Fold:
Amino acid sequence: MMRRLDSQNPLVQPLWGAEQAREAPAALTDTLDASTSSIEDVLDAARERGYQQGYEEGEQRAHQQVLVQAQEKALLAARQHAHAVGELEQARQQLEALITALPAALAEHAQAAQEVAVAAAYAAVVRMLGQAYADGQLMQPWVMQALADMQQPADAIHLAPQDMPHVVPPEGVRLVADARLQPGQCLLRTRLGHYESGLDVRLETLRTALLTGLARHRQHEDVV
Structure:
């Protein structure tokens, strides 16, 4: 059996009154708006935190990158400085070696110059004597000087056949052409033996005298 509900029946009443029914949608809207605002605030806060965190991480990475680049530049500069210092030290050592070797080099150069001077003087004498010999003006004074140096009477003067026309012997001394002798050579015979003279012997004596004088000069320089 069905019973009709009567709104006038005090047993049958709605859960809220008419006024409450009119106010419910507005309250729900306010609640939704408040919830939406809260969500947006949460999202904004999350975005802000994410942005701040990303910014800090980016700044940290940038700082680390700058630090790494600075370290690499410092290391490169240190290597370049060490290389430059090494080259400078090598140059200094080479300069010191040159300075240390300079006196010896100068002395060696001076000795070489002295040897050249002696050789040049000897060559000049050889040329002069050679020219005098070629002109036939050398053998006569040469033989007379050899006789004076011997300090004893000579019995004979031996000369190369080419030199015979250029020598006039002293009185009492024989002039002998000797094919064994080279041009410019001279052999003086006495009762006690023979005495060799001539252009070759005189030049060798001159060369020995020049070298001896050079050696004495160097010894004097070493002492001083």
Q: What stands out?
A: The chain has three helices and four strands. Residues 136-223 form a domain with the hypothetical protein PF0899 fold fold (CATH 3.30.2320.30).
